Amino acid sequence: MEISDLLKPEAVVAHLKAGNKKQALQELSKYAAEITGVNERRIFETLLERERLGTTGVGNGIAIPHGKLPDFKRMYGVFARVDKPLDFEAIDEQPVDLIFLLLAPEGAGADHLKALARVSRLLRDPVMCEKLRGAESADGLYMLLVQNEAQAA
């Protein structure tokens, strides 16, 4: 599974404005609703439900909120760089500025886990994160996120 299978250029946000975790999830839900055609409120509630199980703030300024919805036929991603790092209740207690939202069909057990692992591997790379934090445009962010695929092809 490649990042380009999950993420399309129109699903990248270079300057997400949010004052807290809940606002960030609300904003990401709006973007996700636009690309999936699924109700924004349903997406938001799914994300909140997952956060109640434990934070998706994985450390080093990164969060990977995710959820499953029955309406989906495939997986969707939304990537955002937050203008002002925010408290995401991350495991390392550091503020988050890079968020990769992942939404999957309800029955996507193994595929969902593979996608989470793929995103996690990508964002564990400190050099990649530094480049993402330095990019100014959504196009630039998208190119960084999928660049390794082009090199591997």
Structural features, described:
The protein is of the alpha/beta class and 153 residues long. The protein has a single domain, classed as Mannitol-specific EII, Chain A. The chain is built from 6 helices and 6 strands; from the N terminus they run αβααβββββααα. The protein has helices spanning 3-6, 21-36, 40-53, 109-123, 126-134, 138-152, and strands spanning 12-16, 57-59, 62-63, 66-69, 76-86, 96-105. Strands 1, 2, 3, 4, 5 and 6 form a 6-stranded mixed beta sheet that branches. Helix 2 (21-36) packs across helix 3. The longest helix is centred in the N-terminal third of the chain and has 16 residues, at 21-36. It is globular and about 35 Å long. The two termini are 13 Å apart. The relative contact order is 0.21. The mean pLDDT is 92.
Give the strand tally.
6
Give a short account of the largest sheet: 6 strands, mixed
Could you say which structural class the secondary elements and strand pairing correspond to?
Answer: alpha/beta
Shape assignment:
globular
Number of structural units classed as domains: 1
The proportion of residues in beta strands is: 15-25%
CATH topology title: Mannitol-specific EII, Chain A
| CATH class term | Alpha Beta
Q: What's the overall average pLDDT, rounded?
A: 92
Number of helices: 6
Q: CATH H-level name... which superfamily?
A: Mannitol-specific EII, Chain A
SSE series: HEHHEEEEEHHH
**Global Rg:** 14 Å
Distance from N terminus to C terminus (CA atoms, Å) equals 13 Å
What CATH architecture do you see?
Answer: 3-Layer(aba) Sandwich
